[in-house]
Design goal:
Elements lengths: L4 E7 L12 E7 L8 E9 L27 E9 L9 E5 L4 E4 L6 E2 L16 H13 L7 E4 L5 H12 L4 E6 L2 H9 L4 E4 L5 H9 L3 E6 L3 H7 L3 E9 L21 H4 L3 E4 L9 H13 L7 E5 L4 H6 L9 E5 L1
Parallel strand pairs: 8-9, 8-11, 9-10, 11-12, 12-13, 14-15
Antiparallel strand pairs: 1-2, 3-4, 3-6, 3-15, 4-5, 5-7
Amino acid sequence: MAADEMERVVLVRHIDGMPTPDDFRIERLAIPDLAEGQFLAKNHFVSCDPGTRSRLSPGASYAPPLPPGAPVDGFCVGEVIASRNDRFAVGDHVALSGWATHVVSNGRGYCLKLPDLDVPEQLWIGLLGVPGMTAWFGLKRVAQFKAGERVLVTSAAGPVGATAGQLAGLWGASEVIGIAGGPVKCQWLRDIGFTTAIDYKAADFEAQFAVAAAGGFDVMFDNVGNALIDRALPHMKLRGRIVVSGQVADYNTPNDAIPGLHNTREFIGRRLRMEGMVVFDDLPGFAAAQAELAGLIKAGSVQYREEIFDGLARLPEAFCGLFTGQSFGRRLIRV
C-alpha cells in the first residue's frame, strides 16, 4: 500500500443469518485531501464488537442499517498524522470509529483525544471504551446496583460481562454468578472473582443453573438475549432489575424466530424492571468513570483478556468468530 493510500472494510451485501468473511471486502483508495476543520489519524488498533452486527441487516435497530457498499463502522484508536483542526494536533492519540487503516474526521461524533492515564492504548477501545463503560453505567445507572445484592451476568467471559461482574464484586455484591461457554472460560471467571461460573455448554447446565437460581437474583446483566432472560425471570427477587446490554444470541436470528418472553407475569408480582441501554447516553460521565476504572486496572483489581489479530484483512474473520463461540476476550486488529 502506497503512503498516500488507505484501506477500509466495506459491507458487500446485507447479511441474513450468521455473517461470513465473504460478506465484507477490503477496499483500497487514495487518502483524501483534508478540508478545513478535518484531521487524519493512522489507526493502530481496530475493535470487533458484536453490536456492529445489528447494523449489517436491513431493518430498524438502535442505529441505522448500513447500505451495501458502505464502509463499516467500528471503534479504533490511533495517532493524528495530519491536521487542519485546531483541537487535534499532529501526535495526539485519539479514539474514533472506522474499520480502516486511516480515518479522516472533523472531530464530531464519538471522537476522543486520549488523556494520559498510563494504560495500554488499545484499552481505550476496550475497558475504557464502550465495553467497559457499558459495564460501568449498566450497573450504576440502569441497574442502580447496591452493595449486598446478588448479580447474574450472561456472556460473562466477554469484555462487557467480565467487567460488569468484577465491578459488581468490587462494589460489594454478595454473590456474582456468571454464565459462560466451556470449562476454561468458567475457570477464568472464578480466577477473577466471580463467586460462581455456570457452563451453558455442560450437560448438567440445568442443574447448575437451578442451584445458582435458588438464591434469587437482584440484578441480571444480560448480553445474550431473550432465552436466558426468560429463564431468569421466575428467579428474580422482589424489585429486581434486568439490564439489556446486548443480544449476541439473537443478532443472527430472523425476527420471527427470536425466542419470546413467556414469563412476563413475574414483572407484576415481583415488581421487576427491565431496561435496555445505549451507553452513549452516559457520554458526559465517561471521563470520570474512565479515570477511576484506569486506576482499578493498574492496581490489578480489574482483569481483562485480549485476542489480537494482525492486519486489517483479518478483521472479517475475527468479527465472524464472535458469533461461533471462538472468541475469549476483547478481539482487536493490530493495523
